[in-house]
Design brief:
alpha+beta; 4-stranded antiparallel sheet; 81 residues; 4 helices; 33% helix
């Protein structure tokens, strides 16, 4: 048997559909086995992008494109020196 838990409280399966629609975007939902062990956890949608993705701004991209680049052949020649 698997039970649902939100905020540490057990939730009835009959309430699962409305729960997912209202709570899943902001809170983690745990699925537990009969022994109470967590077998799966949902991740709230929230701000789905990690910090490193949000740091990729048009200004950051333009700055990097303005930098010095080497072709693969140029890199290989410089690495073998």
């Amino acid at each position: 048997m698997v039970t649902l838990h939100v905020g540490g409280k057990t939730v009835r399966w009959a309430d699962a559909e409305s729960l997912f629609a209202s709570v899943a975007a902001t809170e983690a939902i745990e699925f537990r086995d009969a022994a109470g062990r967590v077998i799966a956890t949902t991740t709230p949608a929230g701000d789905a992008d990690p910090d490193w993705v949000r740091a990729i701004t048009p200004e950051e991209t333009a700055g990097r494109l303005a930098g010095t680049f080497l072709t693969l052949d140029e890199y290989r020649r410089s690495a073998s020196l």
